[in-house]
Amino acid sequence: MDAVVVDEFEESRIADVPRPTPDSGEVLIEVSRVQLSVTECLLYRGAEIIHYDAIERRLEGGDARLFGHEFCGRIAEVGANVTAFEPGERVYAPGKIHCGTCSYCRSGYENLCPDTVGIGYDRPGALAEYVSLPTEPLCRLPSGVSDAAGAALQPMASSLLCVLDADIDPGDTVVVLGTGVMGFQCAMAAKQFGAGDVYTVDVRDRPLEIAGENGLVPIDATTTDPLERIDERTDGLGADVVFEAVGGEQDHGTAGDDPLAQAFQMVRRGGTILQVGHIANDIELTPRAARSKCVRWVNPQKGYKSVSPSTNTGELAGELVADGDVPIEAFVTHELEGLESFDSAVDITVEKAEYGALGPAQIVID
């Protein structure tokens, strides 16, 4: 089968590699689409961010099958001990592969497992015609979810975790700084979870238009001071919950006009800041600025978890998209054909503004 093989940072090729055979607890998936993540693309370019050590080790070991954890596909074969899935079912991977033996896993806190195996980082991902995976991280795709939405669904499941960890109460005023893929999804999920007014802040016209078209309140930060607007709309109280969904390089967490600092300034006393975006560098933080307002600064859990006895965040993400409650395809703007488009997809995903992309590029495989 064909697969993307990475020889070195920023060096890849298409190679004919053996089609994997699933172990007894695994399934073989025929990959339909892959959506690159910004993290994967930055790692490919050599950025020393999360997962860098794992990528460096894989490259030191020789040619590596890297990346491809955001994907959808159809099960082609199941291992001897697999009963939860059947051939022909469409799946995606919102979860992580946990060790199963640490104290967290043994006590039911798998989301906090320190020894997870990352799809596309520690083991081959879906940048290939087929990928073999254990059933643990997989969820079925509802029939109403297209392949384009299915490949984009893993961030949606993560957005649901963010919203759950924010503990939104009915009628809460919510602000989302950054109306990219996950910022938009967090905002829409917050509405689904009972928030009142949900404001989205950005500097780009189209994401703000999409937000307004979907019942959110857009704030264009190029023409309006978000702090003043939220202060005005809340009679000086501040927002109950603020999602920082920009990330990137920032200088100070509690002072100045960086996104996280703005979050600390616009959240009310006793409110919550949910850290969606990955901050790339070390930042200064004045503890008393958070302590004096009794602010909770929350970093969300990863993977997926149960929200009731009948569903989990991975399944709920698919249901919300299938029902049209969260139109994630609005951010799928660039669809490329074939694995040979990998390097172009990387460029588009990293340089969205240059290419007019709203979300990461997708690669159509079948």
Give an overview of the whole structure.
This is Zinc-binding dehydrogenase. Pfam families: ADH_N (PF08240), ADH_zinc_N (PF00107). Keywords: Metal-binding, Oxidoreductase, Zinc. The strands form four sheets. Strands 3, 4, 5, 6, 7, 16 and 17 form a seven-stranded mixed beta sheet that branches. A six-stranded parallel beta sheet has the order 10-9-8-11-12-13, with helices on both faces. The protein folds into two domains: 2-152 and 332-364, Quinone Oxidoreductase, Chain A, domain 1 (Alpha-Beta Complex); 159-298, 3-Layer(aba) Sandwich (Rossmann fold), CATH 3.40.50.720. It contains 13 helices and 17 strands. α7 (205-213) links the parallel β9 and β10 (217-220). It is 28% helix and 23% strand. The chain is an alpha/beta fold and 366 residues long. α1 packs across α12 and α5 (153-166) crosses α11 (313-322). The chain has helices at residues 38-44, 52-60, 103-106, 147-151, 153-166, 181-192, 205-213, 226-233, 259-266, 287-291, 313-322, 342-350, 352-355; strands spanning 2-8, 11-16, 26-35, 71-78, 90-92, 130-134, 139-140, 174-177, 198-202, 217-220, 239-244, 267-275, 296-298, 306-308, 311-312, 335-337, 362-364. The longest helix has 14 residues, at 153-166.
What CATH architecture label of the largest domain applies?
Alpha-Beta Complex
Structural class: alpha/beta
The proportion of residues in beta strands is 15-25%
How many beta-strand segments?
17
Total individual domains: 2
Mean pLDDT: 95
Evaluate the radius of gyration. 20 Å
Biggest β-sheet: count, sense, barrel? 7 strands, mixed
What is the number of helices?
13
Strand-and-helix sequence, N→C?
EEEHHEEHEEHHEHEHEHEHEHEEEHEHHE
Q: How many angstroms does the end-to-end distance come to? A: 12 Å
What is the CATH fold-level name of the largest domain? Quinone Oxidoreductase, Chain A, domain 1
Task: Tell me the overall shape.
Answer: globular
The helix content, as a percent range, equals 25-40%
CATH class type of the largest domain: Alpha Beta
* Uncertain runs: none
CATH homologous superfamily caption of the largest domain: Medium-chain alcohol dehydrogenases, catalytic domain
